[in-house]
Write a structure and sequence with these properties.
The complex is a heterodimer. Chain A is an alpha/beta fold. Chain A has 12 helices and 13 strands. Chain B is of the alpha+beta class. Chain B contains 2 helices and 5 strands. A 5-stranded antiparallel beta sheet of chain B has the order 2-3-1-4-5, with helices on one face. Classes of the chains: A alpha/beta, B alpha+beta. The interface between A and B is medium-sized, with 27 and 19 residues.
Chain lengths: 388, 83
């Protein structure tokens, strides 16, 4: 099957394709100025460094961060989340996380818990991923908590979590807040310093339309986070200690400069379109998709109801059908790419009550069209009718 | 070098951000390699005209740029200014 015939509805895993200029920028960086950023003062090294600085600046502007050097580049969101989890938490700390967390949060926490270093508890949510704020407050009241971790939007349910309210609550009880913006960065408005969130981890390769291998972490200037990785930074080389200056303190080793050059082009696209417009468009597509699917007998849609706020993620279950087989059939017979199974988040499946069945997830992106959604709905109709 | 001061940095990214901020403020600047008498750290420094010292220091403070220091060339050495 030709690439042009494939309908890609897996943007929650990674946006694809990217705007053409993203790939061109990566190639340009590799071919024309691919020196090592921050190492040496020759013109190519400075040009490479400048591309990184400009990208950092654009991220700061987009996410309401005053000082761009409070944004750190990492290789992926899991690394960014680990930088906070491993760098902040010490013996005896308590952490609260939500019932829609990805394994990238749950596993590092479980590892620390197994080592006897921290305790963890879960903030209650209903089956649609809506937070029970009263329960959260009770937990914060009853137990001194170091960190609250919350997924800004569920990668299974599409539910958007009220991080402003959660942050205010956590701060009232002396806890810090880490937001996983994997499903919202570039597709749902997020003004970090207005919300006063302490840490935000975000991928470059999803809503921000950059290449894989790019991500960022915001660290509040008020917090001296211990580095997760130590080593060469190209700066203060005469010192044995890791530099304290940002971003060098947290950017050990050579950055993925060609990837960041690509991310800069993705950001230009997002900024030109505006995040508000992108969200509005993806929400409208999600509504079309949900309306079409809900007309198919027996289909169970997950997450917020039609008409309610969500990101462009629509997950569902077809009764008596194996989600993985449905996804396989969509790919084989219709050329439609979706994701089935557990989506690296058994927690969210437990919340949604779909641990036994898994689910089919269709996720909308910057280039999804109405026609593609119509084809997808027809394909599901056919599969639901004929079985697989 | 008589009529300029030099800002030295501990980070290339801090240096390039400062370059952008000062250019935005229409201050005439040049990028120089950092003299080894100042630091063996980040290899980039920014030179600016002496008369812009007050504007430069207020930008550094307002924008919370982290610098190694501002230095005045004196013969073969560099004297750090306090600000």
């Amino acid at each position: 099957m030709e690439r042009s015939q494939i309908i890609y509805l897996d943007h929650a895993a990674t946006s694809f394709p990217k705007p053409e200029r993203v790939a061109l920028a990566v190639a340009d960086a590799i071919s024309n100025y691919g020196a090592n950023p921050g190492r040496g003062a020759h013109r190519l090294a400075v040009q490479a460094s400048r591309v990184i600085m400009e990208t950092r600046f654009m991220l700061a502007k987009l996410f309401g961060v005053k000082n761009p050097n409070d944004i750190i580049f990492t290789s992926n969101t899991s690394v960014a989340l680990n930088m906070v989890i491993q760098g902040l938490l010490v013996q005896g700390d308590h952490v609260i996380y939500s019932g829609i967390e990805h394994n990238s949060v749950r596993r590092p926490l479980e590892a620390l818990k197994t080592d006897g270093r921290i305790t963890i508890s879960e903030m209650k949510m209903n089956e649609h991923g809506i937070v029970n704020v009263t329960d959260l407050e009770d937990q914060l009241k009853n137990r001194k908590t170091r960190l609250v971790i919350v997924n800004h939007a569920s990668n299974l349910l599409g539910t958007i979590v009220p991080i402003e309210a959660i942050t205010a609550l956590a701060h009232r009880y002396g806890a810090l807040v880490l937001v996983d913006a994997a499903q919202t960065a570039g597709t749902y408005p997020l003004n970090i310093e207005r919300l006063q969130v302490d840490f935000v981890a975000m991928p470059g390769h999803k809503g921000l339309l950059g290449p894989q291998g790019t991500a960022a972490l915001y660290i509040s200037p008020a917090i001296d986070l211990k580095p997760f990785i130590y080593g060469g930074t190209g700066s203060q080389s005469e010192k044995i200690e890791q530099p304290t200056v940002r971003p060098d303190r947290y950017e050990t080793g050579t950055l993925n400069m060609p990837g960041i050059a690509g991310l800069r082009e993705g950001l230009k696209y997002v900024i030109a379109q505006t995040v508000e417009y992108i969200h509005q468009r993806e929400w409208a597509h999600s509504q079309t998709m949900m309306q079409g699917l809900s007309a198919i007998p027996g289909i169970q849609l997950l997450g917020p109801a039609i008409g309610e706020e969500r990101v462009g993620i629509v997950s569902f279950v077809i009764p008596n059908q194996d989600s993985a087989k449905v996804a396989f059939e969509l790919d084989k017979s219709f050329g439609i790419a979706v994701r089935a199974g557990y989506h690296c988040t058994p927690l969210a499946h437990a919340t949604a009550g779909t641990l036994d069945t898994g689910a089919i997830r269709a996720s909308i992106g910057w280039c999804t069209t109405e026609a593609e959604i119509a084809t997808f709905i027809n394909a599901i109709k056919s599969i639901a009718k004929n079985g697989n | 070098m008589a009529n300029i001061y030099l800002i030295a940095f501990d980070s290339t990214q801090q240096a390039l951000r400062t370059e952008m901020l000062l250019e935005f403020a229409d201050i005439e600047i040049d990028i120089y390699p950092t003299p080894k008498q100042i630091t063996a750290g980040c290899a980039l420094s920014i030179a600016f005209p002496c008369e812009d010292l007050n504007r430069v220091t207020s930008i550094i403070q307002d924008e919370q740029v982290e610098v190694r220091g501002i230095f005045k060339p004196v013969a073969d050495a560099y004297e750090q200014l306090t600000f």
